[in-house]
Specification:
- The longest helix has 23 residues.
- Helix 4 crosses helix 8 and helix 7 crosses helix 8.
- The chain is an all-alpha fold and 135 residues long.
- It has eight helices and no strands.
- The protein has a domain of 92 residues: Orthogonal Bundle (Cytochrome Bc1 Complex, Chain D, domain 2).
């Protein structure tokens, strides 16, 4: 009896460890390299950053906080991992979401609006150096 319990506990622990390994993988690791290297056509545009700020306030701030720095339901978007994300990677994450973990996909927003949000997120609203493409 004791033996069976120990085995069940071991199996449960193994299962939990595996689940954590899967969930713990950063979404950045799952961005396809082609998507990651896609350049932001609106990268240098100040107008795009401003439009992106409005879009962020409307669609994202409820979960990610108005400044993109706070912590509501979503993570802080200026986290170390994200500050190294390329514009293309951010675009991919926004387009596809991380559905299992509560980040909705935004593919229904027109592409230029998604790029505007990327411009906002990478335009000094985050106190990080300019994002460099991940290898
Ligand atoms: C319903 C709540 C919700 C909304 C609205 C939302 N997000 Fe998220 N977002 C999340 C959650 C929760 C996560 C964390 C998912 C995870 O744990 O991997 C996330 C993750 C992210 C990430 C990856 C962060 C990281 O550290 O890996 C980015 C980038 C992101 N969101 C951008 C946006 C943008 C841009 C918008 C608006 C277009 C938006 N989100 C709208 C809930 C939301």
């Amino acid at each position: 009896m004791k033996h069976r319990f120990a085995r069940a506990a071991l199996l449960a622990a193994l299962f939990a460890a595996q689940a954590m390994a899967v969930l713990g993988t950063s979404v950045l690791c799952r961005v396809p390299s082609k998507a990651r290297l896609r350049p932001n056509p609106l990268q240098a545009s100040r107008a795009a950053a401003q439009a992106g700020a409005k879009l962020f306030a409307r669609h994202c701030a409820g979960c990610h906080a108005a400044s993109a720095r706070g912590r509501y339901r979503g993570p802080v978007l200026n986290s170390a991992a994200l500050s190294h994300a390329s514009p293309g990677a951010l675009f991919w994450i926004i387009s596809n979401g991380i559905v299992r973990r509560g980040m909705p996909p935004w593919s229904r927003l027109p592409e230029p609006e998604r790029w505007q949000i990327v411009t906002f997120l990478t335009s000094g609203s985050r106190p990080s150096p300019a994002p460099t493409p991940l290898r």
